[in-house]
Amino acid sequence: MLTPELVTQVFLAALAAATTLQLWLSARQIRHIRTHRDAVPEAFADRITLAAHQRAADYSIARTRLGQIESLYEAALLLLWTLGGGLQWLIGFWQDFGLSDTATGVGVLVSATLIISLLDLPFSIWQTFVIEECFGFNRTRVSTFIADLLKQGLILLLLATPLTWLILWLMASSGSLWWLYVWGVWMGFTLLMIWAYPTFIAPLFNQFKPLADEALRQRIEALLARCGFTSRGIFVMDGSRRSGHGNAYFTGLGRNKRIVFFDTLLDSLEPDEVEAVLAHELGHFKRRHVQKRLVSMALMSLAGLALLGWLIEEPAFYQGLGVSEPSLYAGLMLFLLISPVFGVFLTPVMSWLSRKHEYEADAFAAQQAGATDLIRALVKLYRENASTLTPDPLYSAFHDSHPPAPLRVAHLRRLEAGG
Predict the structure, then answer these.
(1) Would you call 52 exposed, middle or buried from its count of C-beta atoms within 10 A (0-12, 13-18, 19+)?
(2) Cα–Cα dist 167/180, whole Å
(3) Mean of the pLDDT values across residues 232-242?
(4) Residue of 42, 221, 273, 281 marked catalytic
(5) Which helix (H) or strand (E) holds 194?
(6) How far is the CA of 314 from the CAs of 1, 4, 210, 308, 328, in angstroms?
(7) For 308-363, how does the pLDDT look when each residue is reduced to its tens digit (9 = 90+)?
(8) How far apart are CA 237 and CA 263, in angstroms?
(9) How many CA atoms lie within 13 A of 282 on its CB side?
(10) Which end of the chain is less enclosed by CB atoms within 10 A, N or C?
(11) How many CB atoms lie within 10 A of CB 336?
(12) CA 40 to CA 52: how far, in whole Å?
């Protein structure tokens, strides 16, 4: 029998456990990095200076400390939203307008999302204009930062409002299996956004120009042909407009795929190293990692919606989380608020899967472009991006989507040696 008291107790226990776990892992990370700050790992000693290693250590520690504060802040806000009556107040605010249940629900869900984004803003500001600035990475102007926020808010309103309306309508009109229909809509929307992002959304924030280096472009096209990969073009993004970090990625879906290099990455790598980085990204394509991650996400969202389909019919679910009267939109909002707490405990599984994919992509790159070139590229990226070479093993196993630098390089060297 589900009671309000049981719901409250389970929620508080999960929140306390998740927050404590995050803080403990972060403390381990800081302690481990600080302990190894004064010596470059032997595998990197000939290519990364002690000064660069210490800069990366200090940068990682600063980011981890901010994460600790953010964990406590988010836990406090979640308590205010739920047991503190924040969501109950927001529901009452929208109900006073006398709108239909669906319109009221759209108002509650969209406004709550905007408020949460605004409440998270101080950490984004501190990360960008204090930490990134202090370590020489920030190139974002205040005007650009504000413009990005306004664009993001407008996109949220334009996309979230009709999507939320459709979801609430389905929840109200589709019977007991509404969660199955909502899942289909959500997956369709997700695939649409992946397809549309490179053409319609990303250009709102960055400029994308075709790769101008003819020799490099021909080299990349030859690699693409060997791998059987087709795309809508090879583009260079003005990443340096906002940050000194370098990266490369694939975006889009189906025939709308694009290859994107940050201009900062092209400035720091040699052509053979760029080819090796791209071969790694192609490894994700050839090993069907994108499809596997989409399937994982689809199964998790289906399970979550099925669970919500049960909880939303239980008055105790609402009462135990600070909402007096059941409603479809209140149940959905409560689920969106508390699900990340329980999702924390799935993080190490998802991180392990991601690291497994990274090793597989590295193995593919070693075959197509050479392990030595990829090692050189990775070392440069570790140095330029101030990535720590000495993460705490347990913290890394829990959080990191990529293998720690020493393990990744050791794996590539084994491949290079034919192991």
Answers:
(1) middle
(2) 11
(3) 88
(4) 281
(5) helix 178-196
(6) 10, 10, 55, 10, 11
(7) 999 999 999 999 999 999 999 999 999 999 999 999 999 999 999 999 999 999 99
(8) 6
(9) 24
(10) N
(11) 15
(12) 9
281 an active-site residue? yes
What is the per-residue pLDDT across 245-304, written as a single tens digit (0 to 9) for each?
888 887 777 767 788 889 998 888 999 999 999 999 889 988 989 899 999 999 999 999
Give the dihedral of Cα atoms 59, 61, 62, 67; nearest 10 deg. Answer: 130
Q: What would the mean pLDDT of 9-25 be, rounded to a whole number?
A: 98
- The residue with tokens 């000495």 is 390
Q: Tokens 């289906």 identify what position?
A: 302
Locate 378 and state its tokens.
């990775």
Whether the full predicted model's pTM is greater than 0.85, yes or no, is yes
pLDDT of residue 230: 77
Position 308: which residue type? L
Q: Which amino acid is at 335?
A: F
What stretch of H or E contains 356? helix 347-368
- Amino acid sitting at position 9: Q
Among 230, 264, 315, 302, residue whose Cα is nearest residue 5: 315
| Token code pair at residue 109 | 């869900």
